[in-house]
Design goal:
- This protein has about 1100 residues and is an alpha/beta fold.
- It folds into four domains: about 200 residues, 3-Layer(aba) Sandwich (Rossmann fold); about 190 residues, Response regulator (Rossmann fold, 3-Layer(aba) Sandwich), CATH 3.40.50; about 300 residues, Transferase(Phosphotransferase) domain 1 (Transferase(Phosphotransferase), domain 1), CATH 1.10.510.10; about 280 residues, Nucleotide cyclase, GGDEF domain (Alpha-Beta Plaits, 2-Layer Sandwich).
- It contains 37 helices and 31 strands.
- Strands 23, 24, 25, 26, 27, 28, 29, 30 and 31 form a nine-stranded mixed beta sheet that branches. Strands 7-6-8-9-10-13-14-15 form an eight-stranded mixed beta sheet, sandwiched between helices.
- A hairpin with a 6-residue loop joins strand 13 and strand 14.
- About 40% of the residues are buried.
Length: about 1100
Amino acid sequence: VIWAGVVLSWLAGVACVDRSVRLSVLAPNSTNPTQNRGQNLQQIRPVVEYAVQAINSSGLLPGHSLHLEFRDTNCSSTYGPIHAFNLHNVTDVFIGPICEYVIAPVARYAAVWKVPVVTASGFADHFIHRDEYATLTRVSGNYRLIAKCMVATLQHFNWFDSALMYFDYGLKSSLGHSDCYFALGSVFQQLTSMNSHRSRSQSFNETTGPVRFKEILLELTEKSRIVVVCADQRTVRDILLVAESLNMIDSGEYVFFNIELDTRKLSLTPWYIEGDKDNERAKKAYTALLTVTSRTPDTPDYRNFSDEVKRKAGKELFGPGPISTFVSAFYDAVLLYATALNETLAAGGHQSNGTLIVQKMWNRSIDGITGAVNIDFNGDRIADYSLMDMDPDTFEFRIVAHYIGIKDKLEFLNNTKIHWAGGRTSAPPNRPECGFDGSLCQTISPFLVLTLVLSSFLVVLAIASAFMYRHYKLEAEIASMTWRVMPNEIGHVAQSKFRGSMHSLVRRGSQLTVFSEDGVSLFDNGRGQMFVSTAVYKGVQVAVRPIDKSRIDLSRPMLLELKRMKDLHHDHVVKFYGACVDPPNCCLLTEYCPKGSLQDILENEQIKLDWMFRYSLMHDLVKGMLFLHQSELKSHGSLKSSNCVVDSRFVLKIADFGLRSLRESSGSLEDCESYAYWKRLLWTAPELLRMEHPPPDGTQKGDVFSFAIIVHEIVTRQGPWANQVDPVTLNPLTPKEIVEGVRSGTGLRPTTSDICCDEEVSALMKRCWAEEPADRPDFNTLKATIRKLNKDNESNNILDNLLSRMEQYANNLETLVEERTADYLEEKRKCEELLYQLLPKSVASQLILGQSVVAETYDSVTIYFSDIVGFTSLSAESQPLQVVELLNDLYTCFDSIIENFDVYKVETIGDAYMVVSGLPMRNGLNHAREIARMSLALLKAVQSFTIRHRPWDQLKLRIGMHTGPCVAGVVGLKMPRYCLFGDTVNTASRMESNGEALKIHVSPLTKAALDKFGTFILDLRGEVEMKGKGKMTTYWLLGEKESTDGSPTALAQADLSEVSPSLKENESASAPSTPPQPSTPMQNNSFVPISNQRFQSNNLSKPTSNHNNVSATTPLLQGDMA
């Protein structure tokens, strides 16, 4: 019982002990208006003490009590962090700091310590980054909200051009930037981020006076009438006085905004300074000013709070009026923390869990002493602001609107309105009526007005005169009837025999296609005789189209159409000569084209049409239709292959267009069940077939459909809708069935699957016969497409390829001959260049001159052979293209090296490379030295050569060389080749095949020749068994040293007789003991021909100098060798 009583007493004692919650207040002890908007420890202390007393007495934190500690930061970025370091282990929360340059380090450290930081300052935008300031909570808003308030105000009045003026430190630059710098910096960033707003800014400092203010205002207002100012009240007054002197107030075009960051400095009459002579001017200037400031609560609770704090702290500390919201907000800071702490403790948390407490403070709302405290998800208060305007009756500033931050909206108070300067009754526009510089309202002199009026009158008179002239000229041309042909002007109107086709007679309403006797060379196929009317009009043979009408009414529309037909002139449109309208000889006279219609040509199998000719016909057709569509006729309406005729120069021309009323027969309508009727509709577009009364002249999109059918005819040469069969019965479709299928919209079109043509042509046809007219291209687009297909014919006249259109060049034969001569000489030059690449120049020159090339013996030459060790396995492990690229890279490298030596490249076969020196141009004994030096250069180059697809592999070059006599000559008449004959070739090849990788194998004869120069370093290899030679003493060429006994050139010019005996002796000494076999040069002696030259692609190396550059295509060359 006694122990139980003791325990109960201890527990009761523990329950009665309050836990202490320590709040550390960090603020400067003295007021520093340049950095803290009047917030100091003397004013903040009574506010937070009042808050702590109220919270402790309210029971908000049962079992806990708040205790305060105060530290003077002196607004120093040094002292502030030091106090925070000293307190962070014993404090639960930092209230403050005030200055931005102190908040930054303290908040960073607090994020690491997980200690909450709650401040009524820290307005800079940089503090929004919570990854850096994770425990910082701001309860007085920020500059970003001030910027949003300004944007909402400007948008409300439709102002999009603004200018910003703000104070920043100059002499006191050590203090950093001013609050105005941060505030208007945020405003400027918000405005410039919006595409609809344009803004400019300018700063000033303590030394700026009225003269500079005038310059700044004039500069900023060049592009704006809205000026936002941020400075102290005296500076704002000075700026407005300057604006008044510039007539910016009386004009009513300018509006000034003042961003007031310190509510304690607000004055109802900021324009008034006792005893100042400019008070009246300032009072007028302030009528153009609107002030934006933090919203001050106007509630009984706030007034009681303000009075109670002043009573305890002393009124002289705060002055008259309510306490500044920037100071009273610290009450809300303590209340917000206490509320979050209470919720944390209720949830089982601890007061030291700063992270959890911070989460409870964010994204919530409480009722504070300054009103509703809305904290967003980022820990920033969504503050409200007030817009103030000067009352014109009392000349005192009053609130006219509030910016509600949580709504992002400007709300005006009831029964209040803004009074604008200059006597305006509404807000000034964003841009003045006369523009920013007044250029839109420039006065015009009377002389200029008179000049403009007279000029306008003269222009109108000239235009009217031009229209009248054109009208009367047109009427005169219509009345003159230049198209009219009298009967007596038509000669030999008789039936004459011409060769032609039945297609011209079975159709109705189209020009009769005829072929005169002068064109029978093309159509000499024994077809039947047709009769058609032709005539001679003014010495020109013309086609006569009878008009089946007993009487022709020459109305004005008819006369106008006849004139337009007469005026049409184009290379691909049949020329209209005129019409005879005198009964009974009524007829139309058009250009006569003797080669017949396009349909006749396509169906004549004796005429061979290559694709160039077909593209040319399509191109002519497109150009003619494009001209018609761009003319006043607008469309053809009856386009088909039988209405396209070809003249004597094989130029396609379009016929049977226009004058539809004259071409139609006046007799009975054509039998709608006849074969000819339905066949005539095979080219008609589906939308026209569905019309009960289609346009007489058709439509442009309908012409495009007809063009597609004609293209199909040109491609197949089997008539329209060739090989069209019923998919069920497989029977050929009749014209009626085809027309009905097209009309029904089932998508019936000519077959393209089994025709042989370019994909572009097939796609072109499908686009042109699309069901929807809008999906079909116009002839302008078709012209560009056909031009691409016909590009060869565009660059070279078709006369050169078809031996036709000769009349186009009848007067230019001399020029044509010169061009052909130039072409011949150019081709001759190309052939000679190619021959010089195939053969040595001296040999090629003899062949060009027609001389026979006699084989020549050379007493002493040096032959070089090389190959690549392991090339077969390398080729097997590589792709064929990689092998080609390897050899091309290697031989390109070799070719560039051998150009520096007096050598001749004979051939490349696969990986084998053969070079000779001493022929065809003799060079004394220099051939051995040239080959030796070249070998050393090639060996050095190959050691640094990189294989593109196998860079890790080292290319192993094996070189052999031998000196001796040989015979060189040209072999064969067809594709002659320059070949080397003799045992020297065999021996050089054996030297290479018996050598070693990355070494130069030298025969005794070559060594003897090199010893004459005394500069080459050779090493004895010893005796080597040579196939067909027996044992031979050979050497390795290691390098060359500088000459010590004079120039080798003198030795090279010595008589060969002095050297030949020694060479022969060495050759005899090294020869096998077996007796030599009898042989002939062409049978036993080895020869290596020059491989056939092929035209090589651009990615291979080009032939250089006189060396024979052969593509490394091994199978081909081996075949040549065989």
